Amino acid sequence: MQKSYGLPFSGKTVPDIYLNIGHFLDHFIMLIFAKAAYDAGREFGLSYDEIIAYGAFGFVLFGGMAPIAAQLADKFSRSFMMVLFHFGIGLAAIIAGYAQSVWHLAVAIALIGVFAAIYHPVGIAMLIKSNHKIGFRLGVNGVFGNMGVAAAPLITGMLLSFGDWRLCFTIPGLFCLVRKPCNDPQRPLQRQVFFPVVTTTRFVLFWFTRSEGHDFIGTVLLSPLRDPTF
Questions:
Q1: E strands within the chain?
Q2: Whole-model pTM?
Q3: 34: closest CA among 100, 113, 122?
Q4: What is the pLDDT of residue 202?
Q5: What pLDDT, in 10s, does the model give residues 173-186?
Q6: Which of 35, 42, 56, 161 is the most exposed, having the fewest neighbouring CB atoms within 10 Å of its CB?
Q7: Can you give the residue ranges of every domain in the chain?
């Protein structure tokens, strides 16, 4: 029998909603580059055809690292690996948003692929741990994953219309970092989802207020979110 090491999150049970949102984020963040590559290419002096090749290794690692992620989950803890998934993919996305060269961006995309590979062998295994309505719950989880695929170009395009390609990576990355999926699974659902949404919104508005011409957003919309009860 393979030895399992005791870690801080090893005994946690993660609700389906966390696993489902994780599936959404997994596919969503992986596909940001496909939409944002054109704007990133213009900044680095490359065409879309040229810069898109720098993201290829990330997609190779997305699939290739999955068996290794499964092995680590068996050796340590699936819950711990899910924490690592959120922290790693979030941090890698933020690194991509601050890339100073096309090679920095390529490394960040590769890191996104490494951490994104964790979800399927680990998250799905956690989902089917309970025998209750496995088919239905897998179906719902699949819907969230497909929604991530569909939402990636839509949300990335929306962020591009308000900011730049860097914002497209930074905002989802920040959301992953503040989500804390396994720290306290007994929290009410509104706290599980509402806190990261509010925190991310604060960052978006702060980003906008640092740019010329966005004073209205800062004075009218940002002040209600300064309530410490959030």
A1: none
A2: 0.75
A3: 113
A4: 52
A5: 988 888 755 444 44
A6: 161
A7: 16-180, 187-230
